[in-house]
Design a protein that fits this description.
Layout (H helix, E strand, L loop, with lengths): L3 H11 L4 H9 L20 E2 L5 E2 L2 H11 L6 E5 L5 H10 L4 E6 L2 H10 L6 E5 L12 E6 L8 H5 L1 E11 L2 E7 L5 E8 L9
Parallel strand pairs: 3-4, 3-6, 4-5, 6-7
Antiparallel strand pairs: 1-2, 7-8, 8-9
The chain binds S-adenosyl-L-homocysteine (SAH).
S-adenosyl-L-homocysteine binds next to strand 2, helix 4 and strand 4.
């Protein structure tokens, strides 16, 4: 499983279902988001080390999270935990020029790394900071995605989500999909176990 084509083929057979998301995976090259020494392994379906003991997620995990999040053209999305920026780029491709991705990273080296990896995207705003309680400045969001493992779901994240919006967040190793109804109630659905680096509180 070493070529870009083979990886895409696998993702299409297994998890990718939505045409606009498939196109985003075709447009974004994972090799642009890994460290030079890992470029030869960029298309292996595994997480890889990036800087500061963090990892770029496994492609299958990024594909599953993107399908569950249901992004669409024109949406405004908050991402907590930019990491390499790979997931950010996929979302930016889906929402297009009329949409916007606001992404937060708490580790300075990674904030810089991702900002550079994403410099060609005009619909991405990179921020350095802690997103455990979201990012009120640009709320409300159509979608919120947290890419690190939380111990609980902050109420602030839900406040920052639009009615009929979707929040996905791993909680104690289990990926949770939280839908906000038209009336502001929440519906939680567990989506399976994944391993993520911890969401840091301070
Ligand atoms: N999807 C990313 C993986 C991100 S790993 C990729 O494929 O590259 C999770 C990231 O969340 C790490 O970079 C970590 O530093 C960051 N993170 C952890 N806690 C955070 C917090 N409270 N606020 C912002 N970023 C956080």
């Amino acid at each position: 499983m070493l070529t870009r084509e083979k990886l895409l083929e696998k993702l299409k057979k297994t998890v990718l279902k939505t045409q606009i998301i498939i196109e985003a995976f075709e447009d974004v090259d994972r090799a642009d988001f890994v460290l030079p020494e890992h470029k030869k392994n960029a298309y292996i379906d595994e997480p890889l080390p990036i800087l500061a003991e963090q990892t770029i997620s496994q492609p299958t995990t990024v594909a599953i999270m993107t399908e569950i999040l249901k992004p669409a053209i024109g949406m405004k999305i908050l991402e907590v935990g930019t990491g390499s920026g790979y997931q950010t780029a996929i979302l930016a491709e889906v929402v297009g020029k009329k949409g916007k991705i606001y992404t937060l990273e708490r580790i300075p080296e990674l904030f810089e790394f991702a900002k550079k990896n994403l410099e060609e995207y005009e619909n991405i705003e990179n921020f350095y900071g802690n997103g455990v309680d979201g990012f009120p400045s640009w709320a409300p969001y159509d979608r919120i995605i947290v890419t690190a493992d939380a111990t609980e779901v902050s109420d602030y994240l839900l406040y920052q989500l639009k009615p009929e919006g979707i929040l996905i967040i791993p909680v104690n190793g289990e990926l949770m999909k939280i839908e906000k109804t038209e009336w502001g109630d929440k519906k939680e659905t567990p989506m399976g176990n994944f391993s993520f680096v911890p969401l840091v509180k301070d």
